[in-house]
Specification:
With about 140 residues, the chain is mainly alpha-helical. It has helices at about 1-10, 10-40, 55-75, 80-100, 100-105, 110-140. It contains 6 helices and no strands. The model has no long low-confidence stretch (mean pLDDT about 90).
């Protein structure tokens, strides 16, 4: 019975993964708000007001302003779809800044941050999967 309870309680790795997702949710919300700031034109400049932006910036900014807070909500509640939505946002910004720097500028730090977050996510998920698989194997051997 104690072994079953140990399997049901989250491990420290799972708790760390949950905190990682919540930190990512905070970043998604922050950057979603920053895209909204761009849309409503709180700062002067051609790329800080929707009606003055080139069409490619209008499309990207509008999409990310809506989808990043949605990703934040999913990541915060630890829903699997939150990571999927975040990946779509990260892929969009990666294409913007790495694939189309002539249109959006060269922001390698944004691309590197997305790559580091994605790598961290994959490593944590793989570690959790391997831990659960080993625990299930041990439980089956003990039964």
């Amino acid at each position: 019975m104690a072994h079953q309870r140990a399997l049901l309680e989250p491990s420290s790795l799972e708790i760390a993964f949950a905190w990682f997702q919540r930190v990512m949710a905070g970043y998604c919300l922050l950057f979603g708000i920053l895209y909204w700031v761009r849309l409503i034109g709180l700062f002067p400049g051609p790329l800080w007001r929707f009606d003055l932006m080139p069409v490619h910036w209008q499309v990207a900014t509008a999409m990310l302003a809506v989808v990043l807070p949605f990703a934040a909500a999913g990541l915060w509640v630890l829903a699997s779809w939150g990571a999927v939505i975040w990946f779509i946002c990260a892929a969009t910004e990666t294409v913007m800044y790495a694939g189309l720097p002539q249109l959006f500028g060269d922001r390698r730090t944004v691309v590197a941050a997305h790559a580091a977050a994605a790598l961290t996510y994959v490593v944590l998920r793989a570690a959790i999967y391997l831990r659960r698989r080993r625990a299930a194997r041990e439980a089956a051997d003990g039964a």
